[in-house]
């Protein structure tokens, strides 16, 4: 995580506008056909925290890819995590950025470059407002979708209690919940 940009999140006055839509999980989102790129956070958005990506999630991403959507994954995880994702998702072959340094927007710009996309018809989906959605906001992405943490809904590995507390505090300051 980029500490400089994370501090900027806390100083940012317009937090209520960071979430454009909210869903229970990625499986509840209906994407428009004109959306050319879907960027997903990985941990606690598509699967358990730093753990397994389920067959259901892989099938979901595969279906989106077959429908013509470019798929990109962005994570602050390490290169070991990237290798796991590449193996699990080789059939889909998404663009994968790890060590992304979110909320620094530079990794989002790198995804635009690698996928030859512009930010006009892009959707970012994540479970954290301060890293996933704030980084997307800084990169000029207008469609920023917040989902509930995967591990809260479907089980599996959860992040530490400190991490969960900070995420709840971020949500509270941005949404008043």
Offer a few descriptive terms.
7 helices, alpha/beta, 6-stranded parallel β-sheet, single chain, Rossmann fold, 177 residues
Structure report:
It is a single chain. The protein is an alpha/beta fold and 177 residues long. It has seven helices and six strands; from the N terminus they run αββαβαβαβαβαα. α1 crosses α5. It has a six-stranded parallel sheet, with helices on both faces. It has a single domain (3-11, 33-175), classed as HAD superfamily/HAD-like (Rossmann fold). The two termini are 24 Å apart.
Would you list the SSEs in sequence order as H and E? HEEHEHEHEHEHH
- Based on CA atoms alone, the radius of gyration comes out at 15 Å
Number of contiguous helices: 7
Number of domains: 1
Name of the CATH superfamily: HAD superfamily/HAD-like
User: What's the level 1 CATH class?
Assistant: Alpha Beta
Relative helix content: 40-55%
Oligomer: single chain
CATH topology assignment: Rossmann fold
Q: In terms of topology, how is this protein built?
A:
Blueprint: H1 3-11, E1 21-23, E2 37-41, H2 55-66, E3 70-74, H3 79-88, E4 95-97, H4 106-115, E5 122-126, H5 129-138, E6 143-147, H6 150-154, H7 161-175
Parallel strand pairs: 1-6, 2-3, 2-5, 3-4, 5-6
Helix pairs in contact: 1-5
Task: Describe, in short, the structure shown.
With 177 residues, the protein is α/β, with parallel strands linked by helices.
